[in-house]
């Protein structure tokens, strides 16, 4: 678990819960980073988890919490894999929204998320 100050000066706790990363503030959920499992293929080869979704709740949007959760995951696993690129179709296939794709591209520039395949 780590604690950081968000852009509003609040102490946000970030920790792993199962496959996910969760951010809380005063025991209230501030955000979630949903990940797939990390796979160990043996012989020192590990497949990092894939981002399934990142969410920050209304009172916590635009406070740096989503990036902090991705950074925490990246410190644990190395750069994580991105979700499916936005196809412009419906999102029933778990592809990124326009906002999610923009966020992912920014995190890719920072080396926290791997490039799209």
User: What oligomerization state is this entry in?
Assistant: single chain
Task: Give the spatial strand order of the biggest sheet.
Answer: 1-2-3-4-7
Which word captures the global form?
A: globular
Largest sheet: 5 strands, antiparallel
Structural class: alpha+beta
- Distance, first to last CA: 31 Å
Q: What's the structural domain tally?
A: 1
Relevant CATH superfamily: Gcn5-related N-acetyltransferase (GNAT)
Q: Mean of the pLDDT scores?
A: 90
CATH class: Alpha Beta
What percentage of residues falls in helices of 4 or more residues? 10-25%
Instruction: Label the CATH architecture.
Output: 3-Layer(aba) Sandwich
Q: Can you count the beta strands?
A: 7
Fraction in beta strands: 25-35%
Can you write the helix and strand succession as a string?
Answer: EEEEEEEHH
Which ranges are low-confidence, i.e. pLDDT below 50, for 5 or more consecutive residues? none
CATH topology label = Aminopeptidase
Rg estimate, integer Å: 14 Å
Number of helices: 2
